[in-house]
């Protein structure tokens, strides 16, 4: 029976214990499992290799992304590190230029020491991708929409180029989740998530997920997962499973709120620009509409006057000034000093991550309260006066 995604989400990890019929997956807080006799196993031997709670999460994400096999890691960065272990010294990667700062740092400060190089390209341009491919290019790592400028890559076209050139294609699907976008259906080889964000959804657990599309890649990833051992523990696996169940309704509300806030900010005289793929004047609005079933709940904006930034961050009452995203609570971040601080200033500026840019992760609160919160900090007379002087 082909169940729809809302149903699949709710059924994540459902009734995994036939002995009790427990609806919620039990937390198997065990490092090891006894064997019935020599040469026999229950399927579980040692929890680095497999743990029933983690396996329930891994099966759920593989199904949701339409892939072959899922793997749960201790963080999104552990997931990306493990994916990068697929490459060898001398290999070159094509990487979206506007991406999560931690991914950039990992490539530049860790993997560069192992002879793996990367070119940072505007992957929303397929010509730029084709031009960057060399004889040593072995992989492409795409974030779409990108973080924080919300640039959208055409998945179908890009994955076709990747395929034709024999590149392993990796999509960081953290911002969209499988509820809105399924990169494997466009030909991606690997999809990864920081499950810390929307999949967990409550800002209470750090986790990473990987889904491989083919048996060959699944076997390679399984060796790395068990060999390097950056696995997710049973408690956190349970929290992510619990988060998945409400993903659809959370995202529906979050997107609805985001659309309202994006439209309101676009009209505001103190705001210079709003970056949100759900706005009709977003350069890739058409592509987004084609390849995803929604525009997500992340938006960025620039203020006209930099002096507004500290006032906004200090005075917001409902929206918290904190790193991370995707949870039920709205959070605002300042990429220049937070998520993207490790990208050298001139590179950062040239990519549009300036000191006027703020990133908003919209939660499930009442949209009017969020807009009132922003209105208050943008329009209190003291703030307006401080900006003028
Ligand atoms: C947060 C994030 C990561 C890193 O994940 P962690 O769970 O924090 O290790 C990677 N990619 C994107 C897009 C992210 O937002």
Description:
There is one protein chain. The protein is α/β, with parallel strands linked by helices and 389 residues long. The chain has two domains: 5-245, Aspartate Aminotransferase, domain 2 (3-Layer(aba) Sandwich), CATH 3.40.640; 248-388, Aspartate Aminotransferase, domain 1. It is built from 15 helices and twelve strands. It has a seven-stranded mixed β-sheet, sandwiched between helices. A five-stranded mixed β-sheet has the order 8-9-12-11-10, covered by helices on one side. β2, α4 and β3 (117-121) form a beta-alpha-beta unit. α2 packs parallel to α9 (234-245). It is globular and about 80 Å long. The N and C termini lie far apart (65 Å). The protein binds pyridoxal-5'-phosphate.
* Count of DSSP H/I helices: 15
Q: What CATH architecture of the largest domain do you see?
A: 3-Layer(aba) Sandwich
CATH topological fold name of the largest domain: Aspartate Aminotransferase, domain 2
Number of separate structural domains:
2
Q: Give the C-alpha Rg.
A: 21 Å
The CATH C-level name of the largest domain is Alpha Beta
- The counted number of beta strands is 12
Shape: globular
Write out the distinct hetero groups bound to the structure. pyridoxal-5'-phosphate
Unreliable segments (pLDDT under 50, ≥5 consecutive)?
none
The main β sheet shows up as: 7 strands, mixed
Helix content: 25-40%
Q: What sequence of helices (H) and strands (E) makes up the elements?
A: HHEHEHEHEHEHEEHHHEHEHEEHEHH
β content, as a range? Answer: 5-15%
* Amino- and carboxy-terminal Cα gap: 65 Å
Computed structural class: alpha/beta
Mean pLDDT: 95
CATH superfamily of the largest domain: Type I PLP-dependent aspartate aminotransferase-like (Major domain)
Spatial strand arrangement across the major sheet: 1-7-6-5-4-2-3
């Amino acid at each position: 029976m082909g169940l729809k995604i809302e149903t699949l989400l709710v059924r994540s990890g459902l009734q995994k214990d036939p002995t009790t019929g427990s609806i919620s997956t039990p937390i198997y807080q065990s490092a090891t499992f006894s064997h019935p006799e020599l040469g026999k196993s229950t399927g579980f031997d040692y929890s680095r290799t497999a743990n029933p709670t983690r396996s329930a999460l891994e099966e759920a994400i593989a199904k949701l992304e339409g892939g072959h096999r899922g793997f749960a890691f201790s963080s999104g960065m552990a997931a990306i590190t493990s994916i990068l272990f697929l490459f060898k010294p001398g290999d070159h990667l094509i990487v979206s230029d506007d991406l999560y700062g931690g991914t950039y740092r990992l490539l530049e400060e860790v993997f560069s020491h192992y002879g793996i190089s990367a070119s940072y390209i505007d992957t929303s341009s397929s010509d730029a991708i084709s031009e960057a491919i060399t004889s040593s290019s072995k992989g492409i790592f795409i974030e779409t929409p990108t973080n924080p400028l919300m640039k959208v890559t055409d998945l179908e076209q890009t994955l076709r180029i990747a395929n034709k050139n024999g590149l392993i294609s990796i999509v960081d699907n953290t911002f969209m989740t499988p509820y809105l976008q399924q990169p494997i259906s466009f030909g991606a080889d690997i999809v990864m998530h920081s499950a810390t964000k929307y999949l967990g959804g409550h800002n209470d657990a750090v986790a990473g997920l990987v889904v491989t599309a083919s048996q060959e890649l699944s076997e390679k990833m399984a060796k790395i997962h068990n060999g390097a051992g950056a696995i997710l523990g049973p408690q956190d696996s349970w929290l992510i499973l619990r988060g998945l169940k409400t993903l659809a309704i959370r995202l529906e509300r979050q997107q609805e709120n985001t659309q309202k806030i994006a439209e309101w900010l676009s009209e505001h005289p103190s705001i210079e620009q709003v970056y949100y793929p759900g706005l009709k004047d977003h350069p890739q609005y058409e592509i987004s509409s084609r390849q995803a079933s929604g525009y997500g709940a992340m938006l960025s904006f620039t203020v006209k006057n930099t002096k507004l930034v500290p006032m906004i961050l200090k005075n917001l009452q409902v929206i918290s000034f904190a790193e991370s995203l995707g949870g039920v609570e709205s959070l605002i971040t300042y990429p220049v000093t937070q998520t993207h601080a490790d990208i050298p200033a001139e590179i950062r500026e040239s990519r549009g991550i300036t000191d006027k840019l703020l990133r908003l992760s919209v939660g499930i609160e009442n949209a009017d309260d969020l807009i009132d919160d922003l209105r208050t900090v943008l329009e209190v007379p003291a703030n307006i006066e401080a900006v003028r002087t």
